[in-house]
Amino acid sequence: MMAATLPTTAGKLTPDAPLAPLVWFKSGGMAEWLFEPRDIADLQQFLRDLDPATPVMALGLGSNLIVRDGGVPGVVVRLGKAFAKVERTDATTLDCGGGASGILVSSTARDAGIAGLEFLRSIPGTVGGFVRMNGGAYGGEVKDILVDCDVVLRSGALWTLPAAELGYSYRHSELPEGAIVVSARFRGRPGEPAAIQAEMDRIGASREASQPLRSRTGGSTFKNPPGRKAWELVDAAGCRGLALGGAQVSEKHTNFLINTGDATSTEIEALGEEVRRRVRETQGVELEWEIQRVGRP
Question: How far, CA to CA in Å, does 156 sit from each of 43, 110, 236?
Fold first, then answer.
């Protein structure tokens, strides 16, 4: 078994770790190993010493993820509290750990009088995921606020990459394969905390009114095709409320899939594929997954 080949670490290493409790859908299998590094140096050393053939995957808040029922081979890296700090470095810039949540980043920006980061309040995830996926909502995108980011490569090397080198497009970056974002610098503009809070409240209310936030969901399921809205295409294809086992297309927002109680990841993914098929056949549009699907079926 791989146990003999795993490096020693100052962090926490758990074999056969259930991932369902760590993802929003609350479904899926186990990680062969779950690694929670103590700090950046610990992560670097672990990856440097790890057999290069062992797969490694980073896990944030698990908000935009289907973990397949067969589990995830190799090592799943989860950045804990040591990677969740957010600090102001100048009048308009925040240094944010890769494990910091959007709510923490936007609240810290508000307290520091930094505007332009309010949209992060509405994205359920961590800085690492935002940077990798060019996270965006309510008119803002990470590419508009990112200065640069620090990543640990699969080799254990630590690189700083400026935003201009990340090849950003809609919900996509060209981050090196296997790179784990450990921190990022976001730059906004001067603002009044009260006005920033008002904008965050507006975004929060809009999200609460339109999205099934109290459900077990994975956020936006499909990317918006150019000039179109995914939810409108799903709705037009007659998929509102469509169910498969314990998985269902949300009645409230048709670009959200929900686990109504005991859905398997297999059911959730199969429902998504059925929605894609119906949209393709009735609307003539190929929907692309926005939710990441990982692990073994």
Answer: 7, 35, 47
Rounded distance, CA 201 to CA 209, Å? Answer: 12
The arithmetic mean of pLDDT across residues 200-221, rounded, is 89
Cβ pair 75, 178 in contact under 8 A: no
What is the per-residue pLDDT across 53-99, written as a single tens digit (0 to 9) for each?
999 999 998 989 999 999 999 999 999 999 999 999 999 999 999 99
Sketch out the chain's domains with CATH numbers. Answer: 2-81 (3.30.43.10), 84-196 (3.30.465.10), 214-294 (3.90.78.10)
Active-site residue identified among 220, 267, 276, 278:
220
Catalytic annotation present for 206:
no
Has 220 been annotated as catalytic? yes
pTM (two decimals): 0.92
Instruction: Inform me whether the pLDDT recorded for 116 exceeds 90.
Output: yes
- How far is Cα 67 from Cα 79, in angstroms, rounded to an integer? 18
Catalytic residue among 171, 240, 280, 293: 171
